[in-house]
Amino acid sequence: MPDTPSTPAPSTPAPGTPAPGTPAPGTPAPGTPIIDIRKLHKSYGTLEVLRGVDIRAGRGDVVALIGSSGSGKSTLLRCCNLLEDSQQGEIVFNGDPVRWRGTGHARQPADRAQVTKMRTNLSMVFQSFNLWAHMSVLQNVMEAPVTVLRQPREEVETRARALLAKVGIADKADVYPAQMSGGQQQRAAIARALCMEPMALLFDEPTSALDPELEQEVIRVIKALAAEGRTMLIVTHDMHLAADVANHVVFLHHGRIEEEGPPDAIFGAPQTARLKQFLRATEPA
Ligand SMILES: Nc1ncnc2c1ncn2[C@@H]1O[C@H](COP(=O)(O)OP(=O)(O)OP(=O)(O)O)[C@@H](O)[C@H]1O
Ligand SMILES: [Mg+2]
Question: For 210-225, what is each residue's pLDDT tens digit?
Answer without folding.
Answer: 888 889 999 999 999 9
